[in-house]
Design goal:
This protein is α/β, with parallel strands linked by helices. It is built from 15 helices and 22 strands.
Amino acid sequence: MSAVGRVLGTQDALALEFWVAVEEGSFLQLDDVVVTDTPLPDGSTVHLFGVVDLVRARHEGARFDSDVFLIERGVLPATVSQAAHVRVTRVEPEVFVPPLPGREVRRAAGAEREAALFFDGMERRLPLGLSRDGEPVYANLDFLDGTRGAHVNVSGISGVATKTSYASFLLHSLFRSGALEGQATSAYGIVFNVKGEDLLFLDQPNRRLSDEARAQYARLGLPAEPFESVQFLAPVRAGSRERLPDTGSRQQGVSSFFWTLRELVSERLLRFLFADAEDAGQLSFVVDRVESKLASWLSEGAPRDAWVSVEGRRVETFEDLVEAIVDHVGLWVGSAASGTVSAFERRLRAAAARLGGLVRGRDVGRREDHVLDWRRRQLSVIDIHNLHDRAKRFVVGAVLKRMFEEKESLGTARPLVFVVLDELNKYAPREGTSPIKEVLLDISERGRSLGIILIGAQQTASQVESRIVANAAVRVVGRLDLAEAERPEYGFLAATGRARAGILKPGTMIVQQPEIPTALLLRFPFPAWATRRDEARDSLLSDAHVFDGLADEEFDASAKRTVVKERGGA
């Protein structure tokens, strides 16, 4: 490729950074990949590859600010000089000498670009998006599947940084790029839908997808298609005997879930009702004692639809269980301070009012009809956006605990499970402790060996437990608040990168990964799957199809009329 400039001689050229004087009629912009060669005395040549991270232009010959007006009128002689600063990413062979002033600099393309960004050494490439010049940007899958590293952390301002959209694209790339080398059928995804219902249409093609976006998918080697194997799960609607899912814009193909009292007790899930307590650490002793006592009252070998009994009293509802616990907690935890016991009772009663239909007396149907089984489809979307924050925490904690224990019992890292969780700062805040935080810490620190990969997202990484952020091999940022960008959590961004993070457009991200010494800016294609109801296919826009495929014995005519009425139908 022809030269775009030469190594500048008026600025120091160093082994790891140098300036380029841009040729007249050419230009360099931020993120361009360049290469230059430096001869050695023995006749060999060192190749220096780098990425442009700063560009400038100025008048040569001007002394004062006001000279610009005289130069433009032709009164003073001067020329325009353009220069670009290059951060070296790779040196081959590894002889660290500076490039000599005047040496030719050219844009890296083909094999040279692959070498500059270390793509040539990636045996398993995962498409991350497209660079500014439309070329694919890859990640080494070894740093995502647990082979050499794991976990992804995404930061950015809500509504602008497109964090959830990028996490969805990343899952699409994992499942459809072929990077998993035959493991795609044994790799699963769990997505917690915490805001709106945008993720309830991942199985539907996006009617707004343009030809340009389709070409971008093709450039990345990905199909411009929605997700193939998806199950949608929503909490059972409170008071619904027919187990209707509590969703609004979509009912078709959505299953409801809940826990029985026996499951709540046997799996020791009571702790997740206290996940938002500031004094959760003080309450943990009381919670642990109560969970142990309740488990001791379960009849061994009893059928799963048997009633739960507490001190000989049969409890039929979650409210009954709460009252039974309050009546006996003083005897069970006699050594605990009275103030701690009172705080436990208050929070337990408050939880009962917030859980809605998440916990039911017993299961009289098939267990698979209400249990969250992440292995039923390749991707499970768990909709919790309508729940109270306390109930959201309960669902996230209960699902992750069960999945973590199931993975531990398998004794192998396969199948891989990718967990997408937004608002990570709520579930694993930097300060304090909670049962959910402990589960997420386990995933971030031991999940790699178990095949559990966390794709966490939040507005501000500075508010998330530092060990979780530090264990993420791949760091991604969208639009950032400029004050947040100055925090040490974003130390991988150079000064220009921090400034750019404050003006990034939706769909543009900055990605840092272990093998590449500089963060790369990329764009990802517009979603090929519907992200809201009006982008989905027509059959999902009509209430006439809400009950397609649902058994008549489960949804009688009165239930159907109720849902249609709630959705604004006649």
